[in-house]
Amino acid sequence: MASCLKRLASIRTLSSITGLVRSKSHTRLVENLLAPRLASATTSSDCFSVGERASKHYSTGPGTTVHLECALNSRLQNDGEVDHRDYLRWGNGGGTFHKSASIDPSAFVEIGAVVHSECAVGAECRIGCGAIIGPTVTIGQSTKIGYNVALANCMVGDFCVIHSGVCIGQDGFGFFVDEQGNMVKKPQKLNVRIENHVEIGANTCIDRGSWRDTVVGEHTKIDNLVQIGHNVVIGRSCIICGQVGVAGSVTIGDYVTFGGRVGIRDHVNIASKVRLAANSCVTKDISEPGDYGGFPAIPIRDWRRQIAMHRQSLKSTNSLA
Where are its TM segments located (predicted)? Predict the structure, then answer.
């Protein structure tokens, strides 16, 4: 056994590993070496290497098949020992995945990415380097996850794009003062649901729900540096520009547009087909479609009149002085 381990440790290239696995003289030797500690990957089909599907597989039980080359790579990168948390190397991209994760064989998990336990990754997904897919996360087909994305407690739909640095599913900012005057955290136990064809810009944060799921409707587009609080529900086909802040428990209708740096107070309801000018702040419900602006946000014509009247008064004051 010791001589076999030394021989495997001396292998440096993937091509030489493939040649060893496919060699008739060494196949039985490799199977005997891997069999006692080979961990199975519960995936929809076999793990495979980029550009070429291997011809030799090792089965550890009903419905659990692992490609020998993928398992061998996992053993070698840990000096011949299987990781005690049952993490393996994904052949298509070199990322790390838990054996209980369900990953479609066409999904590309880049080296440095980690897919945790009981996750589901759909067909043709691409997960970028440094991304962390937390436990029980579901990602739909053809979704692209950028570099250093952190997903937890969420479901992501089909054909979504999540750019680098996005954090989805962390606890919301919810606290209350107890009888002793201490600040106590409110439980944040629910999820985030990202529907189909959503695009989320870099470094945006979306909090998980506390009394209802946080939802982003389909075809909604979110810019960089946006904060969406817990329990927020956003309708379909909305546009949210950069540096927008949406406080907790806000309900937003369909086809809503927020200009840059718009602020929304908590527990506010905004009707469908509302457009908010940049730097506006919504402090109460908006029940009618239309354009709004200002602080507090009012119908855009009224806001423009206020600005004009303010300028007129300033001119009058300056002329009198």
Answer: none
